Amino acid sequence: MDDVTRRRGHTRIDARRPGSPRTDLAVEAHQAVVSRSRSTVPEVETEREPGRYASVHRVRITGPRGAAALGKAPGTYTTVESPQLRQRSQEAKEEVAGLVAKELAGLLRRQGVGPDAPVLVAGLGNWNATPDSLGPRVVGQILVTRHLHEMLPPEKKGSLRPVSAISPGVLGLTGIETTELVAGVVQRTRPAAVICIDALAAASPDRLCSTVQISDAGIQPGAGVGNVRRGLNRETLGIPVVAVGVPTVIHASRLSGVGDGWAGAPAVPPGAFPPLLHGGDARSQAAPMVSGTPFTGDGAQADDDFLATLIVTPKEIDVFVEDASEVVAGALNDALHPGLDLEEVLRSI
């Protein structure tokens, strides 16, 4: 197939092909393909469950044709959406956390990870960049118990799973690929599964900081922003990998109406961007420099090229990431330590 290549015995998806939506969310990739083709996608199943404050949307990619069409690896992708998250609704946060915990527990169970099996949580991302700091912030709120599990009284071990956590940083900070660091920890600590937490890119502004995606297909760090690194999945680590992410950034071209031409792109009111960002008489506003000389070519084309590299985030991103990290960390603690009375356990240890 043109969009699926074989390497080292497993499938690698090329999500950067022309026309593919710039998103890490499978639900948006599916919507884009359906919008273009106006037909169902082969080897892709979807279902939706509405709730009071949040809805659950599942996309199951069951074969290579579905994987090639969506630009995603085969597996189950569940999104929990709640617009009220951006309004900081406590009820919405609690419902989303509960739904995410339920999905996580189900994925671990279906992958053969028992209730007492050790789990490693990896918080991916750059703690120095707020939109990319979700993973490290979640790790800071995880109840880690691997170092305490052997000291627990027998009656407490049934409700307290051995959990360890790392925040490996990014290649620019460490000089080491994230996959290499996580693989080294997996080799030494021998967890039964890895849960990766990362910030994602969305195609719709409506889903920024209001959606949580859970997947059993692993994760491709940097894929949504065009900086694709080696994947974290069962093929690279040898154990089940569950990915949890929240979209915190969006390509500017998705807001301007130019770029990849996805039919589901939102409408943007006139004047939302300065002329340099949306075409028009850009040359009268500024003269971009190319190789040290003023650019005198097609201004609209220059704007489109610039937008193709521009990634934006909400101005309230610090508050949104803080809230998202609390929701995801609460869901993980609930899923990994079912029936846990946190205050009672802390008194015991």
Please give a structural write-up:
- It is a single chain.
- This protein has helices at 26-37, 64-70, 90-110, 134-139, 154-157, 171-174, 178-189, 234-237, 253-256, 275-278, 299-307, 317-336, 342-348; strands at 4-7, 10-13, 44-49, 55-61, 75-81, 119-124, 163-169, 193-202, 211-215, 241-251, 289-290, 293-294, 311-312.
- The chain has 349 residues and is an alpha+beta fold.
- The chain has two domains: 74-252 and 315-348, HybD-like (Rossmann fold, 3-Layer(aba) Sandwich), CATH 3.40.50; 255-309, no CATH class.
- The strands form three sheets. Strands 3, 4, 5, 6, 7, 8, 9, 10 and 13 form a nine-stranded mixed beta sheet that branches.
- The longest helix has 21 residues, at 90-110.
- It is globular and about 65 Å long.
- The N and C termini lie far apart (55 Å).
- This is GPR endopeptidase.
- Residues 1-17 have a biased composition (Basic and acidic residues).
- GO terms for molecular function: hydrolase activity.
- It is an enzyme of class 3 (hydrolase).
- Residues 1-49 are annotated as: Disordered.
Relevant CATH superfamily of the largest domain: HybD-like
Query: How big a fraction of the residues is strand?
Result: 15-25%
Number of helices: 13
CATH class of the largest domain: Alpha Beta
Determine the fraction of residues in helical runs and give it as a percent range: 25-40%
Strand pairing plus helix content: what structural class?
alpha+beta
Which fold does the CATH topology of the largest domain refer to? Rossmann fold
CATH architectural name of the largest domain: 3-Layer(aba) Sandwich
Rg estimate, integer Å: 21 Å
* Rounded average pLDDT: 80
Which shape, going by the Cα principal axes? globular
Report the order of strands and helices.
EEHEEHEHEHHEHHEEHEHHEEHEHH
- How far apart are the termini? 55 Å
Q: Would you identify the regions where 5 or more consecutive residues have pLDDT less than 50?
A: 1-19, 267-296
Question: How many discrete structural domains?
Answer: 2
Oligomer: single chain
Note the main sheet: 9 strands, mixed
The number of distinct β-strands equals 13
